[in-house]
Design brief:
heterodimer, A: mainly alpha, MetI-like fold, B: four-stranded antiparallel beta sheet
Chain lengths: 247, 244
């Protein structure tokens, strides 16, 4: 091996050829964390935002009232915690907390839980803004037709709010691709973690992390490109549900 | 269905909007409610399908107080249609889907039946040709006619109209009134808050005049317009009389 004579560029290429299995495994896990973390986070946010907004006033009664208040405060505390502390710290708490409690789950799963919980906190606030920007008459009209609050959210409020929020949700995905790097702290073998492994195996950390950053750039820009295609597509040809195609 | 409000007061925290109101709406009757802005007309209407909760007093349906459970309220609302001043069509759905949503999700009709019903309702308001359009491409008058069809597709026993023509250009008012005349012919109980006095005189079995959260005058037919008894009613009608 003529290591001394190679240029920086050649060393990058060689490193990728030698360690592509490790690096691509990191890419795979980063994508799993970012994509499923965003999806699960969104699903959780759809529930939390109802609590956060206190739902619709349908029937009254002190129990309902108390229930709503408790859920509203609990959700506010949840969002405050997850937006107010670094994800790295949240990962540590969850990981060691589970260990102390004697619960053993795969580390990738633990990472996914952290990303999902974290994403849910941000998306709840984004969704809340999206819902509040909708005309209150939309939900009133739905309720006046006899729809339940749940049906009103599912059929009328969420479809319209999500349409407006699509760029913001896409942005969360992009942020998650990059921010999942902090999960290396609990040993999740995502891209950053694998980069460090490649670096220490070859004693060439600069090359390893330049390679890692190129892979991040590819992932992020691919995501941005796909999201732009998706949102443009929705605007032009899928704006409306018609003739009984109620999703 | 007989709807009644008994000693009903509504206070949003800045003085009562409705003050100890008691009124009965009989089945098949067409009632128009007139009065100045802020007199509580819309709030009274919104009480009748319990979009607003009373501060005190009762909403009665067929002689029984309306139960404060989700189920009872949804059942009541499904039978009590409402048409809003600002239409409130579902903007993410086509005209047809606007009319199919509630029959499918609330009445659990299958798609074929729901579509048949929705098309029937759209035909009644002359909007069947627009079934696959998006609401935002319609004029105000067309939107309001779709909103009427959306309410009709639930085959309600009572229809509430909250100033349905107030947000429209004068030339669109007539097409909406025409659609409402067809509803009148269906003998559905109608309660209509309106500033269209001439239309009220034409269709009403009974006209109420409200001011400052109270029903000031309640007269059968068009008697209230022709021969108002209360000085406040007379004063209110002066401006309308001046025009006719």
């Amino acid at each position: 091996m003529t290591v001394m004579a190679t240029s920086f560029g050649e060393r990058l290429v060689n490193m990728f050829i030698d360690h592509h299995d490790l690096l691509l495994y990191g890419v795979r896990n980063t994508l799993i964390l970012a994509i499923f973390g965003t999806i699960f986070g969104l699903l959780l946010a759809l529930v939390l935002v109802v609590f956060r907004l206190g739902g619709f006033q349908v029937s009254s009664g002190w129990f309902r009232h108390l229930q709503k208040r408790v859920l509203k405060i609990a959700t506010a505390l949840y969002i405050g915690f997850f937006r107010g502390t670094p994800m790295m710290v949240q990962a540590m708490i969850l990981y060691y907390g589970l260990q102390t409690a004697g619960v053993r789950i795969p580390v990738l799963m633990a990472g996914l839980v952290v990303v999902s919980l974290n994403t849910a906190a941000y998306l709840t606030e984004i969704l809340k803004a999206g819902i509040l920007s909708l005309d209150a008459g939309q939900s009133e009209a739905a309720l006046s037709l006899g729809l339940t609050p749940g049906q009103t959210y599912r059929r009328v409020v969420f479809p319209q709010a999500l349409r407006n929020m699509l760029p913001a949700i896409g942005n969360e995905l992009v942020v998650n691709i990059k921010d999942t790097a902090v999960l290396s702290v609990i040993g999740v073998s995502e891209l950053f973690f694998m980069g460090r492994r490649v670096g220490s195996a070859s004693y060439r950390f600069t090359e390893a992390f330049v390679l890692v950053s190129i892979l991040y750039l590819v992932l992020v820009n691919a995501a941005v490109f796909l999201l732009m295609r998706l949102t443009r597509h929705r605007k032009s040809s899928l704006p409306v549900s018609d003739s009984g195609v109620l999703v | 269905m007989t709807l009644a409000l008994i000693n009903l007061t509504k206070d949003f925290g800045e003085g009562p909007i409705l003050q100890d109101v008691s009124v009965v709406f009989n089945p098949g009757e067409i009632t128009c409610i007139i009065g100045p802005s802020g007199s509580g007309k819309s709030t009274l209407l919104r009480m009748l399908n319990r979009l607003e909760a009373p501060t005190r007093g009762h909403i009665m349906v067929d002689g029984e107080p309306l139960k404060e459970t989700d189920k009872a309220l949804q059942r009541h609302r499904a039978r009590t249609g409402m048409v809003f001043q600002a239409f409130h069509l579902f903007n993410h759905l086509s005209v047809l889907d606007n009319c199919m949503l509630a029959p499918i999700t609330v009445l659990k009709l299958n798609k074929t039946d729901a579509m048949q019903r929705a098309m029937g309702a759209l035909e009644e308001v002359d909007m069947a040709g627009y079934a696959h359009r998006r609401p935002i491409t319609l004029s105000g008058g067309q939107k309001q006619r779709v909103a009427i069809a959306r309410a009709l597709s639930m085959t309600p026993q009572v229809l509430l109209f909250d100033e349905p023509t107030s947000a429209l250009d004068p030339e669109m008012v007539q097409e909406v009134l025409q659609a409402m005349r067809r509803v009148v012919a269906k003998k559905i109980t109608m309660i209509l808050v309106t500033h269209e006095m001439t239309f009220a005189a034409e269709i009403a079995d009974r006209i109420l005049f409200m001011d400052e959260g109270q029903i000031i005058e309640d007269r059968p037919g068009r008697a209230l317009l022709d021969d108002p008894e209360h000085p406040r009613t007379r004063q209110f009608l002066k401006s309308w009389r001046g025009k006719t």
